[in-house]
Write a structure and sequence with these properties.
Rossmann fold; disordered N terminus; single chain
Amino acid sequence: MNFSRCTVLCGLLFAYDPVGANSQAAPSQTTALEQQLSTEVDRFVESDRAAPPAPCQVLFVGSSSIVEWKGTLAADMAPIPVIDRGFGGSHIEYVNRWFDKIVAPYWPRAIVFYAGENDINAGKSADWVVADFDEFMARKTRALGPTPVYFISLKPSILRFAQLPLQTQVNDAIRRRAARRHDLHYIDVVDSMLENGKPREIFRSDGLHMIREGYVIWTRILRAALLPEAEALERMCRRANHGR
């Protein structure tokens, strides 16, 4: 992967995929949720203004499964430096909306992405969720070139287990895209979170948010994907950003 060839590599957009071909209109979102998320994003911006994060870290972005990892994320990913920019309840469209505030400024060596589960729960079709992720990848390509994205599959949970078929549609579509792109990696956590076809007992009392044992599973799978490439990605990031 050569960052200097970004203008060539980044001109290649997604090939046709049936899941994204007939996107439905998304249900309207509550103003209260948008205000809540906007407040969280503003806090990130203020924090960055006071203490700008170093470039070329691994950026974790997405919904509450990223937010709830804050306590141990840095230790779990060590020695890889990380930035946590999860904001609870978010949808992929909101990551896109605030992309220029919570993704692009960090010049990450890689992006770990978890979102889409809340979208399905809110009534959005799998087509719409995948189309929103396509838009995220397009924004990423324009701003950050071939910086790799590691998409964590939508997770099976006790509370939302009935939504697994729709989640699987989204996961399968992203898996197909990852097979065609060098800058997209599909991280499958589904099988490891199931036992005898049902979610493992790795959730809080709400049946949705994971306890430590759930993050142990995610840590093992993500480290196996990130660690072998960590140094090479950092070198390429440094060269692309001229020692920022």
